[in-house]
Specification:
98 residues, mainly alpha, two-stranded antiparallel ribbon, 3 helices, 53% helix
Length: 98
């Protein structure tokens, strides 16, 4: 069941305890595989978060107003200068999805 859960993407699935028989050794190997996959997943998530923050910082540093809308004209991202230009003097807040 643990192997099937991991194969299905559930890297947090419980595994049987390691032991000296064939099933126990397989559980130990599967545990090492799972731990490696979890480490890779966590590193990838950190890398994505860092790249996203660099992008936000770069967009925020633009002196002109910047906004990105999706194909359905919903706001994805904007910088503070864009909000200042669009809503000068108002306490309006633009949030993604609007």
């Amino acid at each position: 069941q643990g192997m099937l859960a991991i194969a299905g993407g559930n890297l947090r699935a419980p595994l049987p305890a390691a032991g000296s028989d064939e099933i126990g050794r397989m559980a130990e190997a599967l545990s090492l595989f799972r731990d490696t996959a979890v480490e890779v997943e966590e590193k990838n998530l950190r890398d994505v978060a860092e790249a996203r923050q660099r992008l936000v910082d770069a967009i925020e540093s633009i002196s002109e107003g910047f906004a990105l809308y999706d194909g359905e004209d919903r706001l994805v991202l904007s910088n503070s200068r864009y909000r200042e230009l669009l809503y000068a003097g108002l306490e309006a807040e633009l949030t993604p999805g609007t």
